[in-house]
Amino acid sequence: MPELAYPLCRQTVTLYHPDAAAGRVVRAVVTGAFLDRRVRVSATETGRARALAFVLVIPQRSARYGQDYTLEPGDRVLEGEGADVAWADWADFLPASVPGLCCVQYVDPKAAGGAPCHVEAGGWWTRTGSGAHSLTN
Predict the structure, then answer these.
(1) How far apart are CA 50 and CA 76, in angstroms?
(2) Distance between CA atoms of 12 and 135, rounded to whole angstroms?
(3) Beta bridge partners of 112
(4) C-alpha angle 44/50/56, rounded to 5°?
(5) pLDDT digits (tens, 9 = 90+) for 23-40
């Protein structure tokens, strides 16, 4: 099987994973990812609801899922190389208070030819940080 091409995966992102047992936030910087943030609008009974949404793609050749980084629902993603976050600051490290920060709602590892090829993650949330749900719901 020919190697998959990821021409859009040219960004650097910082992944933040809370480790409650150790009382720390694990930070991983990944180069060669794709992060797309956008506005999601849906119709409601009273008009339209607007939310921010994102999708993240990390090819296996850029970083190995489960070895080079951990990514789970509730983790955070920031474009570029972000600073360390102290465990005491984790509760306030939210999209509503940090410009460009994304909160992971789903993680979907993908395979091609029986081998891991990339991880897709994403989510959406309102301006206040409430109402976060998976894009697959």
Answers:
(1) 21
(2) 23
(3) 115
(4) 125
(5) 999 999 999 999 999 887
